[in-house]
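Thread: pyridoxal-5'-phosphate complex, take 2
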Amino acid sequence: MIDPMSDPVPPRAEIVVDLAAVRHNVRLLKDVVRGERPVALMAVVKADGYGHGMVEVAAAARAAGADWLGVATIEEALALRAAGDRGPLLCWLSAPGDDFAAAVAADVEVTAYSLEELEEIAAVGPARVQLKVDTGLSRGGAARQDWHDLFAVASDLEREGRIRVTGIWSHFAASDDPAHPANDAQEAAFRDALALAASAGLEPDVTHLANSAATLLRPSSHFDLVRCGIATYGLDPAPGAGSDDGPRAALRPAMTARARLVMSKAIAAGDGVSYGHTWHAPDDTTVGLVPAGYGDGVPRAAGNVAAVWVDDALRPIRGRVCMDQVVVDLGGELPPPGTEVVLFGPGDRGEPTAQDWAEAVDTISYEIVTRVGGRFVRRHIDTDAPGGASERTAR
Ligand SMILES: *Cc1c(COP(=O)(O)O)cnc(C)c1O
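Output below.
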């Protein structure tokens, strides 16, 4: 195991992404769905691979056996094609006027939520289209009252050779909460949609409903394909669902965010720290300056509630998070400038995890890893490769 510490460190702050962890998680998820019936795995790499680097994560996921890749926008899908990806690829969030022709030409499967989108896509066909039905999230997708017409028109367009309906799918509202009644209701609604589609003459290659949480917690929702985002990155999709000694516990977080301490110094009891003096030192102590702030995606809400890891100990953030920097309590120690500060990582060394940060600032780990960026430099390592091949990429 490569210690990211031993690799070259940039002067200020960096995000280190271990692609071996991504491959481990993909293999683990493939094992979860490996049964009597073939179920394909889609690695969801939208939003720059949840902040981990879309192209690098996509390649690692494919190498570990991901059958599909999934992204939100056509632009993301085209960027994957430009990077050389040639496998099954679905996108699902279009705005009016989006370049469906480019997607179709690049062999990207697109998603239609409505008759309007279906007509737009058919106009540049023949296109491979998946239909999204809203089964209760009340977000994207065709509402139940529109399923019949969407399927009928899709079936007509298919007969005319203008589209091929390759998939029908939906998305859960509360799969991270296995006892939530919406799960059963949505799965039942999805089965209704599939029956209606069949009666309209549609024969999709794949039907799919499960995201990471449902993949891990709800086998009945696996259908032909599961769409895994957060679990691909090694973060628990259902931290509130109780502990687990199965696959959820075996996920390996891929991202470490770390920085170099700029300075450390003594402050006296009663001194106020950072803007607004929202924290005063109860006793004499020492503080350290970490050169990353909300301009780099460190949540401003982390002021006085989250902690970082310096010199083998948790060091609480004191006072407000600033745009470019945060102040941490070093408890009397004076580590030299340049000392490593781990904001979050896999947790193996005792450092906080993205989940710890999420709990501290009342959000989800998805937001922590996806938003961290700004002036952090991102580097990909491979702890399974001899020498832990490392490549630094500007973000
Ligand atoms: C983002 C997304 C996913 C992945 O969800 P995770 O909870 O990260 O696994 C799956 N499906 C759709 C439609 C999405 O937008």
